[in-house]
UniProtKB/TrEMBL annotation:
GO cellular component: endomembrane system
Similarity section: Belongs to the DESIGUAL family.
Database matches in Pfam families: DUF1218 (PF06749)
Entry keyword set: Membrane, Signal, Transmembrane, Transmembrane helix
Protein name: Uncharacterized protein
Signal peptide: 1-26
Record membrane topology: Multi-pass membrane protein
Transmembrane segments: 54-74, 94-114, 142-164
UniProt-listed InterPro entries: DEAL/Modifying_wall_lignin1/2, DESIGUAL
Subcellular location: Endomembrane system
Length: 188
């Protein structure tokens, strides 16, 4: 199946929005803390059933899919026309947004994974030998912040895709100009 730039941009945006939605819902569903149940020399933390861990992992998965689709969309040969990577990276604005998209994807992954893994560890390692434990949960606000950065990442991939499309059109205009004017033709 041949992809178009419009289809790729819709795919990147859709996956980024799903990552954002799952991250925000995970933040809203995360419990404030668990209930300590004292035992003999231990405290067992009972946490309410919540989908925040699953939603956090889903948010990370859709962030990764959005980033992979965004990266793939930049270098895909649309309509069978290949553009060398060096042509794209000659554009300073493309290079800047490409690096920002990578950075925000990594930051979003860190902000989403840190509380998700921490929450997962709190749920699975719920027996504490410290009798004064208050059954903590993951830090509040990180999942929501990661969700917003995930959405930002998808938007930066889309901006980079628009800049890559402009660089691609300029490259093909230049190639066409070289082919139609004798002074631009390469002599062999």
């Amino acid at each position: 199946m041949a992809w178009t730039i419009k289809q790729m941009s819709l795919l990147v945006a859709f996956l980024g929005i799903l990552s954002f939605i799952f991250g925000v819902i995970a933040e809203n569903k995360k419990p404030a803390n668990g209930t300590p149940i004292p035992g003999k020399d231990v405290v067992i933390c009972k946490y309410p059933s919540d989908p925040s861990v699953v939603l956090g992992y889903l948010s990370v998965a859709f962030l990764i899919l959005s980033s992979v689709a965004g990266f793939f969309s930049l270098f895909y040969s649309y309509k069978g026309k290949y553009v060398p990577h060096s042509v794209l990276f000659q554009s300073k604005s493309f290079l800047v947004f490409f690096n920002i998209a990578f950075f925000t994807a990594g930051l979003a992954a860190a902000l989403l994974l840190w509380p998700t893994v921490t929450e997962h560890l709190h749920l699975t390692r719920n027996v504490h030998h410290n009798l004064a434990t208050d059954c903590p949960t993951a830090k509040t606000g990180l999942l929501g912040g990661g969700a917003f950065v995930s959405l930002d990442s998808a938007l930066f991939w889309l901006v980079a895709l628009m800049l890559a499309d402009n660089a691609r059109e300029d490259h093909f205009d230049e190639v066409e100009k070289q082919g139609s004017h004798p002074e631009y033709q390469v002599k062999v």
